[in-house]
Design a protein that fits this description.
This protein has 521 residues and is α+β, with helices and mostly antiparallel strands. Helix content is 42%, strand content 29%. It contains 15 helices and 24 strands. Strand 10 and strand 11 form a beta hairpin. It is elongated.
């Protein structure tokens, strides 16, 4: 049997003095080979073994001893893998060791060991031949414990399989493409679209698209997303080869590589054509119904106003009170119908804002005057505190007045009895700010998040009547003016609603220059 030092010397290619030169430049950084080997074998977390050509161990690291529960080298020297491993494991190892000797090349393979507690340990091993005078005299094997890596890999594979199954069976298109529009990864539905231009909707309808024109549009859109690095969400109609258009909800996000560069786009697309058609049918029905109700409502209001004017004869006080109550009811119905119609028009894009120059301070005063009767009936007092006497702006006067009246009426309806409603109007950084504050029940943050949605109202909680469109429509109007709504609620039971809109510059037609007419008190 070749001795340990002989195997080590041949492997480390030491000089004739039996020393290992760590530095070939100065020739002074020498270590005794025994010390070097002892340090390596005692401290390395990996397994290192030397064996002769008959597969008998001649030397090993401390980790190898610990794995099998040996105390010293003497207990293992002369033993073979056959004495330490199960038969199947030994057969695998022997096959690779024979290849190392026959082919004189390193071989990589997986070994399984069992520690003294019987726990399986998986090692990746590399066995290399030790050659002296053109003859293989031994084998060096380095083994690293990859048990945790293997288990993590298996766990990741299972997770990936579950994720892929989830995405592949989801009712949407899910795919990743690179910046050149090449398909990288996706579910079966997305692959079918990219390869054949075909999509099957959730209702089972088969649609054929012109994939070439789609590809051009996708590239153009993705280029902008990669430049901005921002997520993109939209709903759009895509035309099929038969001329029909189908609605899709699309979400796109850019992906970064390790260098921080955007290199691909992940896309999720869901067909919402059925939802859109149902929504359109519902809105058409509401618009038609509202339009049909509008004409008789106006007729009723005008008839009641004529009766109350006394032109057709006088009524006693009780009769007048009954007519006034009926008129109020008709006006409420008319306002509700008008709100429904306006909401449908805003959502369908049929509304065009008619900009004009007007004094918003005067508009707020008008609105307060028109709604003063409601304030009296609810035992509330409206106080207006403008920070300027006049404030001329460019906006749609009718729509802005609708918003102001809506915020005022909400403040009155929900205010505690015998409390004040404070209205403030100011300008900051060329923005008009209107706030309506009242004392009323605290609105939870979750409810506040929903309060501007369509058909959502907190009226029911406080025994009020509402259809949940007033605030929704108000938000639509303000956003159409490039503004934002204000909604704040404090636990001291004070609520503030209002809006911020740009004080658009007014064009002086005589000079062609823009100017802003603002007069402080």
């Amino acid at each position: 049997m070749t001795c340990v030092k002989t195997l080590a010397k041949h492997f480390l290619n030491h000089n004739k003095k039996g020393k290992y030169s760590a530095c070939k430049n100065c020739r002074k950084c020498d270590f005794q080979i025994d010390t070097l080997l002892e340090n390596i074998f005692n401290t390395t977390p990996d397994i290192i073994t030397f064996m002769d050509t008959k597969f008998r161990y001649a030397m090993c690291s401390k980790e190898f001893l610990n794995l099998f529960g040996f105390e010293s080298d003497n207990e293992i020297i002369g033993k073979t893998p056959f004495e330490l491993l199960h038969y199947e494991q030994y057969t695998t190892v022997k096959t690779y060791l024979n290849l190392v000797i026959d082919e004189r090349n390193p071989k990589t393979y997986i070994q399984k060991f069992y520690n003294p507690e019987g726990v399986e340990q998986i090692y990746e091993s590399v066995s290399s031949p030790i050659i002296n005078n053109d003859k293989v005299v031994g084998i060096l094997t380095l083994s690293r414990n990859i048990t945790e890596t293997i288990y993590l890999r298996k766990s990741l594979e299972v997770s990936n399989a579950k994720l892929f199954a989830l995405i592949n069976n989801s009712p949407m298109l899910a795919y990743v493409i690179d910046k050149n529009g090449n398909f990288i990864l996706g579910n079966a539905r997305a692959k079918e679209l990219f390869e054949k231009g075909t999509d099957i909707t959730s209702t089972g309808e088969k649609i054929k698209f012109d994939i070439k024109s789609m590809h051009e549009n996708i590239l153009k859109e993705n280029s902008e997303i990669l430049k901005s690095g921002k997520e993109f969400n939209t709903e759009r109609q895509i035309q099929a080869k038969n001329g029909e258009k189908y609605w899709y909800a699309i979400n796109k996000s850019p992906l970064r590589n390790r260098e921080g560069e955007y290199y691909a786009i992940t896309t999720f697309a869901r067909d919402i054509d059925t939802e859109k058609r149902i929504q359109e049918q519902r809105e058409t029905y509401i618009a038609t119904l509202s339009h049909d109700l509008k004409t008789p409502a106006i007729a009723q209001v005008r008839a009641l106003e004529l009766l109350l004017s006394g032109e057709l004869g006088e009524f006693n006080n009780d009769q007048k009170e009954m007519l006034k109550l009926t008129l109020d009811s008709c006006n409420y119905m008319y306002d509700m119908v008008y709100t429904l119609l306006s909401t449908c028009k805003f959502e369908s894009g049929e509304v065009t804002l008619n900009y004009s120059q007007f004094d918003i301070t005067k508009l707020v005063l008008e609105s307060i005057h028109e709604i003063s009767k409601l304030a009296q009936d609810n035992s509330t007092l409206i106080k207006f505190e403008p920070n300027m006497q006049t404030c001329m702006i460019n906006a749609d006067r009718i729509e802005i007045k609708r918003v102001v009246i809506n915020f005022l009426s909400n403040a009155i309806n929900y205010a505690f009895p015998s409390t004040d409603i404070n209205v403030s109007l100011s300008i900051k950084e060329n923005n008009i700010i209107l706030k309506v504050k009242n004392n009323s029940h605290y609105i939870e943050p979750e409810a506040m998040d929903r309060i501007f949605r369509k058909y959502v109202t907190h009226s029911e909680k406080f025994n009020k009547v509402g259809i949940g469109l007033g605030l929704y429509l108000s938000k639509k109007i303000i956003e159409a003016h490039n503004g934002t709504v204000i909604a704040q609620s404090s636990k001291d039971e004070t609520n503030i609603f209002g809006f911020i809109i740009p004080a658009a510059p007014i064009i002086d037609l005589t000079s062609g220059k823009s100017k802003q007419k603002l007069q402080s008190p």
